[in-house]
Structures are given as structure tokens and as C-alpha cells.
């Protein structure tokens, strides 16, 4: 095992080369990957307040493969979108945006995090974004069942051969072609020996960076992060020339800089503190934390620029305006939010525009109802026959019983071929 006294200054200056379009995580205080809370407007706000790099939310390889990349001509943002594969109604061809980035403001600063459990799929998905991002990160730390049940996230910590295979494949296939680095984000294992064994293997795969979330997989987010293994992880990374980023209860830039020194790591990643207040990336020397209203207004501008889904904007806004929750809790549109935050005429004009763009298209027309011949009323019903009305009281022509009756042995629904034609609704 490595000695805890080993300080960065005395360590050998070995370094896995940073590819020409890649970024070195050393000396950086970065925004963590966060599903829902790490969408484009949040990342832009973090960069606005001084985050050095931003991680996008974990995107599962399956979701990205088969999506289409295009520039949104209205906003200039790059978007990957597709028709959701679990779409029950074949006729609903509304595309979902799987990933969105700002090619100008995020250039050289965005790390794409992939959720994967398969080397081939990881490479296929990474190829789809690698030309537009500064690095590919593999999520090997998410303990949520949706991730681990597919063998992704923290499940990869228990299948190290698979994890190494994924990283080696990405290094082999992505680094030379796209000139960006590959990294991994892990959690701690139960013992220092187990973690060290894992980290030693990881740093030999050709990755340029490793983030360690200082909690074990069973630990809940509200439990304090543990630092006992951190120095060792930093040392193993340094020996191999891989940048080590610490994560877990890092409160902002100033705290990050202290922790980096104290534990001999190379960088720090902030999640929940930045979710509540992205201005934690601005140290005291540069003005410190910003006023909540300034942050909220700037955030809404970024969200409108990106045409971010209103539901997601409201979700993140709720974190930013915690003390003034009543200001946004009632809002249903960007127009409401802009008015509530007193953002002025220009913002109001943009809000109305974005609301119109995001307004859900009307549902596709329903297929025409099949007209069926009314069955003739039998003069006499067989004894014991089931249901319906009694022959003694046949419905009058004005009866509310409008449902056409079909004979008992008629199929309950039209045959498949018929359905296919009738359901073929034109799409916009
Ligand atoms: C809302 C939310 C979403 C998250 N999504 C991801 C994710 O997509 N990928 C990932 O590796 N970690 C994810 N995490 C974990 C964080 O990146 C981070 O490791 C964790 O919150 C610990 O950092 P903190 O103590 O600063 O909050 C998420 C955390 C939160 C709160």
C-alpha cells in the first residue's frame, strides 16, 4: 500500500497524456453529473459562476443509440433526439430530446457521462457525441435500481472485468479518433484494500481521470461523506499519472481548494451544494455567493435560450428559490415565471415565444369509428341466452342504448390487418 505522507510535490510527475481536444481535470472545481439537475441551463449557470468544467447528466447508451443529432436552428443548441422506444402508441411520433448542449459556451468544458454495461454499446454511443464534447466519463457509481438492475452504475464496481473492458474499449476506439480523454466516476468499496485493488486496475486502462465519490454504495446521500480512503486513491492515481477528482460534501470553490490540498487530490466535484446554489463556484475572492434572485433570473434566461422543457426548468428553479418558493410554485409557463420574478419586457416577449414553441401539439386525430350494421332484433330469444335486453322490452329507436350490437361469436376487436390501416394516422 502507498504511504499517506506522499505529498503532491514529491510525487513523480508521471502523467497519462491528455489528448489534443481533451481536458486535464487537474486544478479544476467542477459541476457533478446530475440527472434532472444537470440539464443545459443548470450547466450554463454553473459555468457563469465559475465552474471550470461541467458533467452532463448520465445518459444511457441505449437511449442515445438511434437518436438523431441536429442543430436547433432557432437556438443554435445541439440536440440528440428520438422517438421514445417505449412509446405505446405507434402513431405518436413526438421526438424526445435525449441530450442537449451549447456548442459555444460549453466548448472544451463539457464531459459527457455515459450509463452502460457493455463495451460495444458504450463505444457506439460515445461515437455519437465524441466530436462535440471534451471527454467521455463512465458512470460506475450510481446506486439507483434503474441503473444497477441493468448492470450499469455501481453494479460495475462488482463486475470489475466488465468495467475495465468498457474503459479499455473506449480508450482504444474513442481517444485516437476524436482526441478526447476517457474517465470514470466510482464510489468507495467497503475496505481500503478493496478500493485500492480496484483503483490500481482502473488507472491502468488508459483513462486520464478518475472521480471518487467518497461514499460506499449502500450509503445514503444524507450521510456525511467519508474521507478515510481518499488520500490513498489520490496517491494511486498520481503514481499512474491519472488525475484524481474528489466528490462528496464539497461545498464550493473555497472548500474545494482546501480539500484538494488536505487530501493531495487533483480536483473537486460539487453536486448538491451547486444544485441549490450554483454560485458556490465563485470563491470569496471573486465576490462569493450570489443573491438568489439574480441567480434565478439568469437561470430562466438560459432556460429560455435553450427552449428547456418547462417542467425541468421549474424543478431546478425550485432549488434556487428555496426561501421564496411561493414565487414559482404556482407557475405553469415561462410567462408566469418571468412575471413572478419581475424580469421585464424583453424577457416577457421571449417567454411568450418559448411557451408557444413548447406548447404541446394537439393529440393526433382519433381513427374514424367503424360503422357497423345494426343487428336485427330477434323475434324470440333462446331460453337461457345471456345478457342484453329482454325481448319483451326491445329498445325503442330513441333508446339511449346507442352501442351497436354485434353477434356473440363476432371478434371483440377488429382483425389486426384492419387495425393497421385504421390506425395509420397521418403525423405532422
Ligand atoms: C439529483 C441528482 C442526480 C444525480 N445524477 C447523477 C448522475 O447522473 N451520474 C452520477 O454519476 N452521479 C449522479 N448523482 C450523484 C452526484 O454526482 C454526486 O456524486 C453525489 O451527489 C455526491 O456529491 P455531493 O455530496 O456534492 O452531493 C446525482 C446526484 C443528485 C443529487
Biggest sheet strand order reads: 1-2-7-8-9-10-11-12
Strand content: 5-15%
CATH T-level fold name of the largest domain: TIM Barrel
CATH class designation of the largest domain? Alpha Beta
The class by helix and strand makeup works out as alpha/beta
Number of domains: 2
Proportion of helical residues: 25-40%
Roughly how many Å apart are the termini? 63 Å
Q: Please summarize the sheet with the most strands.
A: 8 strands, parallel, barrel
Q: What is the CA-based Rg, rounded?
A: 28 Å
Question: What's the order of the H and E elements?
Answer: EHEEHEEEEHEHHHEHEHEHEHHHHHHH
* Rough outline: globular
Ligand set: flavin mononucleotide
The CATH architecture assignment of the largest domain turns out to be Alpha-Beta Barrel
CATH superfamily of the largest domain: Aldolase class I
What's the helix count? 16
Can you summarize this structure?
The chain contains 16 helices and twelve strands. It is an alpha/beta fold and 428 residues long. Helix 1 packs across helix 11, helix 7 runs parallel beside helix 8 and helix 14 packs antiparallel against helix 15.
Amino acid at each position: 500500500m502507498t504511504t499517506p505522507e506522499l505529498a503532491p510535490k514529491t510525487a513523480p510527475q508521471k502523467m497519462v497524456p491528455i489528448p489534443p481536444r481533451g481536458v486535464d481535470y487537474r486544478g479544476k472545481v467542477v459541476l457533478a453529473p446530475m440527472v434532472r439537475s444537470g440539464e443545459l441551463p443548470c450547466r450554463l449557470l454553473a459555468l457563469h459562476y465559475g465552474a471550470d468544467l461541467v458533467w452532463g447528466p448520465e445518459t444511457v447508451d441505449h437511449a442515445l443509440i438511434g437518436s438523431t443529432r441536429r442543430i436547433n436552428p432557432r437556438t443554435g443548441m445541439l440536440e440528440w433526439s428520438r422517438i421514445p422506444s417505449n412509446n405505446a402508441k405507434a402513431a405518436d411520433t413526438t421526438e424526445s430530446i435525449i441530450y442537449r448542449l451549447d456548442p459555444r459556451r460549453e466548448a472544451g468544458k463539457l464531459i459527457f457521462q455515459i450509463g452502460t454495461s457493455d463495451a460495444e454499446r458504450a463505444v457506439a454511443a460515445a461515437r455519437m457525441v465524441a466530436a462535440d464534447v471534451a471527454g467521455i466519463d463512465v458512470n460506475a457509481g450510481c446506486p439507483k435500481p434503474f441503473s444497477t438492475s441493468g448492470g450499469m452504475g455501481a453494479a460495475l464496481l462488482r463486475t470489475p472485468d466488465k468495467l475495465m473492458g468498457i474503459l479499455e474499449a473506449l480508450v482504444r476506439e474513442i481517444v485516437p479518433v476524436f482526441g478526447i480523454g476517457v474517465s470514470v466516476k466510482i464510489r468507495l468499496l467497503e475496505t481500503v484494500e478493496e478500493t485500492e485493488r480496484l483503483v490500481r486496475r482502473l488507472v491502468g486502462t488508459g483513462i486520464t481521470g478518475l472521480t471518487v465519490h467518497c461514499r460506499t454504495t449502500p450509503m445514503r446521500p444524507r450521510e456525511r461523506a467519508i474521507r478515510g480512503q481518499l488520500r490513498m486513491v489520490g496517491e494511486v492515481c498520481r503514481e499512474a499519472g491519472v488525475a484524481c477528482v474528489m466528490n462528496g460534501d464539497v461545498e464550493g470553490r473555497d472548500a474545494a481548494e482546501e480539500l484538494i490540498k488536505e487530501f493531495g487530490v487533483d480536483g473537486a466535484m460539487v453536486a448538491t451544494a451547486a444544485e441549490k446554489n450554483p454560485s458556490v463556484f465563485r470563491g470569496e475572492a471573486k465576490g462569493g455567493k450570489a443573491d438568489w434572485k439574480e441567480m434565478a433570473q439568469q437561470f430562466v434566461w438560459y432556460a429560455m435560450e435553450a427552449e428547456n422543457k418547462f417542467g425541468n426548468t421549474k424543478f431546478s428553479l425550485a432549488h434556487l428559490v428555496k426561501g421564496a418558493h411561493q414565487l414559482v410554485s404556482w407557475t405553469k409557463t415561462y410567462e408566469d415565471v418571468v412575471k413572478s420574478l419581475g424580469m421585464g419586457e424583453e424577457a416577457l416577449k421571449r417567454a411568450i415565444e418559448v411557451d408557444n414553441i413548447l406548447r404541446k401539439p394537439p393529440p393526433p386525430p382519433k381513427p374514424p369509428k367503424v360503422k357497423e350494421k345494426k343487428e336485427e332484433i330477434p323475434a324470440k330469444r333462446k331460453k337461457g341466452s345471456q345478457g342484453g335486453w329482454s325481448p319483451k322490452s326491445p329498445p325503442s329507436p330513441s333508446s339511449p342504448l346507442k352501442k351497436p350490437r354485434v353477434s356473440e361469436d363476432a371478434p371483440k376487436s377488429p382483425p389486426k390487418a384492419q387495425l393497421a390501416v385504421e390506425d395509420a394516422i397521418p403525423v405532422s
